[in-house]
C-alpha cells in the first residue's frame, strides 16, 4: 500500500488534542461554520452538536433562519442551554408563517419547552400577542435583555395591544430593554393608552430605550419604576415637557443616570433610537479596545454624578425640546460632560453659539453631523471657534458634513491643527475639510510625538514610532484611530504620504472611497515597510493593528489601469506584512481579508 502523503497528516492535528481543547477551537468559529464542520466526520459531528456552548445562541444573523433549518438538530438541543435568541428577518411577512417567527415560537416554547432564555432580539412583522405571550409566560422571569422592533415599523400587521409596559409587568429581571413601537394611523387604542406598570420597581434595569414614533411619550411612569437606570434613550419626547421639568424628573427618579439620548429621526430607513444605541455601542467597543491596550480611563468620582453622555439627534429640526435640553445640560453639566453627539442642521446651527459660551474640560468624545434641509449651510467659523476654545482635552472627533459650506463662509474646518490631544479622528464626506488642513494637522500630531526621557532605546520599540514609544511616554498624544469615508475632496496620496512621512502612530486605519488609487496605496505601504525591518509575527509586532480599504467604481476618478489585478495582488502581499488584521476591497476586481489571504498562503505551502 502506498504511504499516506504527509499533507493529509496536517489536517488531523486537531484530533490529537484533548476533547475540551478541540471544543474551545470550534467555539472560535461561527455557528454556521460549526454546522459545516459536522459533515467532516462522525467524531466531529458528535463533539460539536453535543458541545455545551453549541446551542447557547440561535441567531438569524449568521445567514440562516432558525426554522426549518435547525429542525434536523433538535434532538441535540438541551432546552436549558438555549440562552440567547436573535431573530432579524424583516421580510418574513411575505413567507410561510410556520418558517419564521411564529414557527420559531412554536419550536422553542411549545416543542422544546425552553424556559431559560435570557436574551431576545426580535425584529419581525409578526408582532402580535399570540406570538409574544408564550415567550413571556415561559421565560419572563429569566429574560434580562430584550430588544423588540414590532411590526408597525414596517406598516404591516396591527400591534395595538403590544406596548412597553407589557414587558415591564412580565419581565421583572430586565437589565436592558429596547422597544420600538409605531401604532397604525387609525388606531384609537394608542390615543387612550395609559401605561400599566408594576407596583414594585425594577432595580435591575440599567439600560432603557423607548420608541413610540407618532405618539408623544411621557417617560415619567417608566422612570418611576427604574431607580437604578444609567442609560436612557427616548424617541419623540412630548414637547409639552419643558427642559427644566424633564431634568428635574431625571434627577428625582434616576439619580444614577449617566447617559441620555433623544432623537427626532424620521423615515423608514432610519431606526431612530437603535441608531443612537448603536453609536453608543461603537464608543463602548472603542473603550474596550483602549483598555486591552492598557490605557485606563479616568474613573468617575462621586462628585461627578450626573449626565456625562449626551446624544441629541434632531434630524428633522422640528423639536424645540431637544434644543432646550441641550442648552440646559450645557449650562448645568459643562464641567462633567465627557461624550456629546449632535446631529441635525437646525439643532447644530442654533446651538453652536450657545455651546461656545462654556468650556468643557472633561469632554473627550465629540460627534458633529451636519445636514441641511432648507438650502442653508453651517457657518464653519462657529465650529472652528467651538473646537478651538471650548474643548481643550478632546480625544475623539467624528465629523460628518454632506454639503459644502464654503459658499457661505470661506472658513473651513481649520481647527484640526489646534486639536493637539486628539487620538481618534473620523471624517465622513468632509466637504468642508481640505487636504492642506489635514497635512497641517498631521504635522502638529508628529510634533507632539516626542520623548522627554534619556532612554535612547525607547524610540525603537515600535516600528512605526517617532520617539514616543517608550512606556513612560504612552500618555503623550498620538493619533490611534483614523477613519476617512467618502472624503474624496480632501484625502488623497498627499495625506497618505504625510501619515507615513511623519511616522504617525496608528492602531486602526480606515479608507473608504477616497481619491486614493491602488498605486497610491502601494507607495504608502512601501514607505511603511521601509520605515523598519519586517516585524516578526511571532512577537505580534505590527505597524497597524487594523487596516480597512474599500474602493468602489462609483467614486472612481479615472479609468482602471490594464494591470490592475496584478497591482492588487502586490498590494495584498504588502498589506499582510504591515497590518495584523485587514480587509481589502477594490470594485469588482478583488475582495479579500487577512484570514482568507493567510489561509491561501498556507494552502500553497502545503501543496508545494
What structural category do the secondary elements indicate?
Answer: alpha/beta
What separation lies between the terminal Cα atoms?
23 Å
Helix content: 25-40%
Number of beta strands: 18
Low-pLDDT segments, ≥5 res: 1-10, 151-158, 266-274, 292-303, 406-410, 451-477, 533-540
Separate helix tally: 19
What is the radius of gyration computed over CA atoms, rounded to a whole number of angstroms?
27 Å
Sheet with most strands: 18 strands, mixed
- Beta-strand percent range: 15-25%
Q: How would the global form be characterised?
A: flat
Mean pLDDT: 77
Textual characterization of the structure:
The protein is an alpha/beta fold. 32% of the residues lie in helices and 16% in strands. The protein contains 19 helices and 18 strands. It has an 18-stranded mixed beta sheet, sandwiched between helices. Strand 13, helix 15 and strand 14 form a beta-alpha-beta unit. It is flat. The protein starts with 5 loop residues before the first helix and ends with a helix. The N terminus is likely disordered.
Amino acid at each position: 500500500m502506498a504511504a499516506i502523503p504527509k499533507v493529509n497528516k496536517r489536517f488531523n492535528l486537531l484530533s490529537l488534542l484533548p476533547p475540551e481543547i478541540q471544543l474551545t477551537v470550534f467555539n472560535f468559529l461561527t455557528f454556521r461554520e460549526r454546522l459545516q464542520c459536522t459533515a467532516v466526520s462522525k467524531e466531529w459531528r458528535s463533539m460539536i452538536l453535543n458541545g455545551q456552548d453549541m446551542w447557547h445562541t440561535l441567531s438569524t444573523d449568521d445567514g440562516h433562519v432558525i426554522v426549518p433549518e435547525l429542525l434536523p438538530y433538535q434532538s441535540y438541543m438541551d432546552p436549558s442551554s438555549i440562552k440567547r435568541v436573535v431573530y432579524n428577518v424583516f421580510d418574513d411577512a411575505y413567507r410561510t408563517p410556520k418558517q419564521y417567527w411564529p414557527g420559531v415560537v412554536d419550536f422553542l416554547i411549545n416543542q422544546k419547552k425552553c424556559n431559560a432564555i435570557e436574551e431576545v432580539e426580535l425584529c419581525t412583522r409578526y408582532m402580535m400577542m399570540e406570538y409574544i405571550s408564550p415567550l413571556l409566560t415561559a421565560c419572563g422571569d429569566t429574560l434580562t435583555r430584550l430588544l423588540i422592533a414590532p411590526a408597525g415599523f414596517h406598516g404591516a400587521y396591527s400591534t395595538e395591544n403590544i406596548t412597553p409596559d407589557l414587558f415591564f409587568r412580565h419581565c421583572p429581571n430586565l437589565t436592558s430593554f429596547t422597544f420600538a413601537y409605531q401604532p397604525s394611523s387609525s388606531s384609537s387604542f394608542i390615543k387612550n393608552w395609559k401605561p400599566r406598570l408594576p407596583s414594585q420597581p425594577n432595580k435591575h434595569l440599567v439600560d432603557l430605550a423607548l420608541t413610540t414614533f407618532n405618539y408623544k411619550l411621557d417617560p415619567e411612569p417608566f422612570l418611576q419604576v427604574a431607580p437604578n437606570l444609567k442609560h436612557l434613550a427616548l424617541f419623540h419626547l412630548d414637547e409639552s415637557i419643558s427642559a427644566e421639568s424633564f431634568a428635574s424628573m431625571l434627577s428625582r427618579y434616576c439619580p444614577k443616570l449617566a447617559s441620555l439620548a433623544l432623537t427626532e429621526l424620521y423615515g423608514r430607513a432610519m431606526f431612530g433610537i437603535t441608531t443612537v444605541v448603536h453609536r453608543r455601542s461603537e464608543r463602548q467597543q472603542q473603550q474596550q479596545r483602549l483598555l486591552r491596550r492598557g490605557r485606563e480611563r479616568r474613573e468617575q468620582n462621586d462628585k461627578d454624578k450626573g449626565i456625562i453622555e449626551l446624544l441629541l439627534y434632531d434630524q428633522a429640526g422640528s423639536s424645540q425640546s431637544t434644543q432646550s435640553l441641550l442648552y440646559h445640560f450645557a449650562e448645568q453639566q459643562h464641567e462633567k460632560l465627557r461624550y456629546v453627539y449632535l446631529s441635525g442642521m437646525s439643532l447644530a446651527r442654533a446651538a453652536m453659539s450657545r455651546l461656545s459660551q462654556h468650556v468643557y474640560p472633561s469632554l473627550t468624545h465629540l460627534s458633529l453631523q451636519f445636514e441641511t434641509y432648507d438650502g442653508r449651510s453651517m457657518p464653519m467659523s462657529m465650529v472652528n471657534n467651538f473646537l478651538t476654545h471650548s474643548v481643550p482635552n478632546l480625544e475623539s472627533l467624528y465629523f460628518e458634513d454632506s454639503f459644502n459650506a464654503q459658499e457661505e463662509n470661506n472658513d473651513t474646518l481649520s481647527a484640526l491643527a489646534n486639536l493637539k490631544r486628539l487620538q481618534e479622528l473620523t471624517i465622513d464626506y468632509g466637504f468642508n475639510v481640505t487636504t492642506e488642513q489635514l497635512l497641517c494637522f498631521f504635522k502638529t500630531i508628529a510634533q507632539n510625538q516626542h520623548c522627554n526621557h534619556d532612554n535612547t532605546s525607547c524610540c525603537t520599540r515600535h516600528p512605526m514610532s517617532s520617539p514616543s514609544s517608550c512606556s513612560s511616554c504612552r500618555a503623550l498624544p498620538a493619533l490611534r484611530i483614523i477613519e476617512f469615508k467618502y472624503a474624496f475632496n480632501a484625502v488623497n496620496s498627499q495625506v497618505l504620504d504625510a501619515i507615513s512621512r511623519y511616522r504617525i502612530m496608528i492602531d486602526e486605519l480606515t479608507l473608504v472611497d477616497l481619491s486614493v488609487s491602488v498605486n497610491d496605496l502601494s507607495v504608502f505601504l512601501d514607505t511603511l515597510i521601509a520605515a523598519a525591518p519586517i516585524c516578526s509575527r511571532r512577537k505580534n509586532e505590527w505597524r497597524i493593528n487594523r487596516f480597512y480599504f474599500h474602493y468602489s467604481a462609483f467614486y472612481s476618478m479615472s479609468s482602471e489601469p490594464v494591470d490592475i489585478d496584478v497591482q492588487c495582488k502586490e498590494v495584498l502581499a504588502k498589506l499582510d506584512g504591515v497590518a495584523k488584521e485587514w480587509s481589502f476591497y477594490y470594485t469588482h476586481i478583488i475582495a479579500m481579508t487577512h484570514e482568507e489571504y493567510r489561509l491561501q498562503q498556507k494552502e500553497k505551502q502545503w501543496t508545494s
